[in-house]
Input
Amino acid sequence: MAEVTRDGWIALTAKILGQEGPSALTLERLTDREGQSRSAFEAQFRSVGALILAVAQHWSDTESTAIAEVSRAPGSPVERLWAILGLTGAADPPLERGVRALAADYPEIGDLVRGADDRRERALAVALVEAYQLEGPEARHYARLLQALHIATSTRRPDEVVAYVSEPVRALMSLLDSNFPVS
Output
């Protein structure tokens, strides 16, 4: 059997984390699952902790790329705002839930999660400023409310995300539309 590549270990670990949670991320579990030896694992990562950090970095990079892409997409500012909001639950909610759970035990992962949250919140604030001409602090407050709804979805099963978040988002957007009409 061929040795698993660095990206292969990251993909496997992301899958296990999303399906089984942080407690399943042991060297034995990972190597047994792929029929690999400890030395094959150590050829790619010095420890399970290093692999877990790489998985969190992968999640953070993927999140950042998705936010950047929709933030630069063609369309009106309101359409871009809705595109950012539409990313909730679109990528890999179980992986996000797992990474957020790991953040409690790994300070480096906590930093990655906060960074991802801050990037999404800034993108939302920029879209709110562009769409509704809100002042900076006010846009940040609405962005934080929308981001809090995004984070809250990580406690939901993937099939519950849309139902959980759609009405509160519509209510906030309706409030914005009525108080800050788009010209």
Observations:
- Residues 107-132 form the longest helix (26 residues).
- The CA atoms of residues 11 and 55 lie 8 Å apart.
- The radius of gyration is 19 Å.
- The chain has a mean pLDDT of 90.
